[in-house]
Amino acid sequence: MSLPPGFLDELRTRLSLTSVVGRKVMWDMRKSNQAKGDMWAPCPFHQEKSASFHVDDRKGFYYCFGCHAKGDAISFVRESENVGFMEAVEILAREAGMTMPARDPQAQQKADKRSQLAEVMEQAVKFFRLQLNTGAAAEARAYLDRRGLDAAALERWEIGFAPDQWQGLWDHLKGKNVEDQLILDAGLAKPSSKGGKPYDTFRGRIIFPIRDARGRAIAFGGRAMDPNDNAKYLNSPETALFDKGRSLYNHGPARTAAGKGQPLIVAEGYMDVIALAAHGFEAAVAPLGTAITEHQLQMLWRIAPEPIVALDGDTAGLRAAMRLIDLALPLLEAGRSLRFAIMPPGKDPDDLLRAEGAPALQRLLDQALPMVQLLWRRETEGKIFDSPERKAALDKALRDKIMLIRDPSIRSHYGQELKDMRWQLFRPQRAAGGRSGRQGRRWADAPASALASTKASVLAVSADMSATEQLREAVILAVLVTCPELVETFESGLEQMRCNDPLHADLRDLILRHMSLDAEAMRHRISDALGPEPLENLFAQRHVAIVPCIRVPGDLEKARMTVAEEMAKLQSARGLDAEISEAVEDLDGVADEGLTWRLSEAARAAEQARRSSQDDKAEYDIADNGAVLSRDERRRLDHLLGQIDLEKRGKS
């Protein structure tokens, strides 16, 4: 359908975006300026506590600085109500008191047909519900009672019964003067191959109505009462109303509950959803007996940014989780992911709730695994990596999966997480007589513990290095605020920069968020978010003020070199710091010889990198081994090694 010129402009003029959005959010009145139409609220599209969702009423646009959702009133209704463009326009037109233009005949006919089918479906809902109270449904009522569904639950979920008759529903609808073709097109009956009357799709089954996000009955699910039936569960065929891969059971109520802060739970079937809701987990949906599709995944993310997939703890449930990971990886965005709550073996959410109650399920939800951990489990569980070839095969499998992720930032974070887990898997085992997975050295002949003075000197060096790291962080942040055009070049390194100072972390996040702005605009955005003091204090620090590219701004190449060098040194220092921290952790049970060797290896690698970097100062490689130590850091390390050596001699 085409709209007349000016219709949408008139619609947007009549409506206040804040009134449209205000139905879904709670405004932060401390941050908002109602007189100017400048409003802020927690984002309705992802869970957060801070107000990062901005509505500019004068311009008629919204933008979330967290999940980057943006648009106008029409797009807001489309996303929040999960409706199409024309349906969103109709909703807003009714609110604005505008009459929708007449549709072209073909579109009007199609809309009328859908409305007729929806009316037929509602008649079928009433028929099935009445049948549940008949004598023929005694076994079905007993089954539902055993599953814990009382009269209130049967009423809420509109559960019914299809009698074991060939034309029970057909004859009922024909008695209501419903046309044959409408019954067939609604998927309620099938034509006979023998030339007789069409026969009912559902026979001898408990019936669960399936409604869309707007509450219209679009399909049915039926559970067979005959244990020998080939299909335990049967859904309506696809119709003009029902697309199985684009529908979710309990969509509308779950969306409402999720909007009130409940976690969105994705279960496997109708009974799981009903049991979850009965125990207080009302934001629960099911994908109607099929593997979750890409469209359903997008629907889930429109409801909540991180749905929890609660799959059965059997082999089939785990396989479904793994298939879902492969589907989701290319679609991941900042703030959009999945978590997985794996049920105990042989149990689904309904079983667990009936056996152990809501607290048991809540514990599983609290322990839900992020996708990256389940991916790691899939590639490593039950496998032995006792050869370089097997380790290489693991690396390749993980690398192939990571490359499916389109978002470069998320891909980088996945790589780092998997790298950390890989290190944990292959890290040295330091029990007595143990073997190092990296070097294969035995340290069993060394003294049982280190001297207290050795431990103290290690801690002192580590603390000193931490202070140095903060100085380097300050230089990096100050240069990038001065030259925002360099942020994209160092985006990955900046994202992974572990800021010891919380204020540095805030500055880093704001720099990344506003990297497309010029220096002046970026400073304004940072000052708006944190106040003027953090930037003033940053640039007032002596070691920042004397940096050449800050003291005399304008030399972009010098600024690039400064950031590259400081990042390289920071990474080198932290690599050494990790060795020292690990050594401190293990000092009570590791020999001084082992400790000395580990720190010497760190120093040797850093020294080699330093010499390499001096050969070509024009390029700085910020890779694992492309870092350098400052003279200060080198001197402290040498002091530490010497201290350990002296103490060893004293003990001998």
UniProtKB/TrEMBL annotation:
Zinc finger residue ranges, CHC2-type: 43-67
Superkingdom, natural source: Bacteria
Domain Toprim: 262-344
Reaction(s) the record says it catalyses: ssDNA + n NTP = ssDNA/pppN(pN)n-1 hybrid + (n-1) diphosphate
Cofactors demanded by this protein: Zn(2+)
SMART domains, per the entry: TOPRIM, ZnF_CHCC
Annotated coiled-coil segments of the chain: none
Listed Pfam families: DNAG_N, Toprim_2, Zn_ribbon_DnaG
Entry's EC annotation: 2.7.7.101
Matching SUPFAM superfamilies: DNA primase core, Zinc beta-ribbon
Annotated signal sequence range: none
EC category name: transferase
Gene3D superfamilies: 3.40.1360.10, DNA primase, catalytic core, N-terminal domain, Zinc finger, CHC2-type domain
Cofactor: how bound: Binds 1 zinc ion per monomer.
Keywords, sorted A to Z: DNA replication, DNA-binding, DNA-directed RNA polymerase, Magnesium, Metal-binding, Nucleotidyltransferase, Primosome, Transcription, Transferase, Zinc, Zinc-finger
Its biological purpose: RNA polymerase that catalyzes the synthesis of short RNA molecules used as primers for DNA polymerase during DNA replication.
Complex and partners: Monomer. Interacts with DnaB.
Alphabetical list of NCBIfam families matching this protein: dnaG
Matching PANTHER family: DNA PRIMASE
HAMAP family in UniProt: DNA_primase_DnaG (MF_00974)
Similarity field: Belongs to the DnaG primase family.
Domain statement: Contains an N-terminal zinc-binding domain, a central core domain that contains the primase activity, and a C-terminal DnaB-binding domain.
Protein name stated in the entry: DNA primase
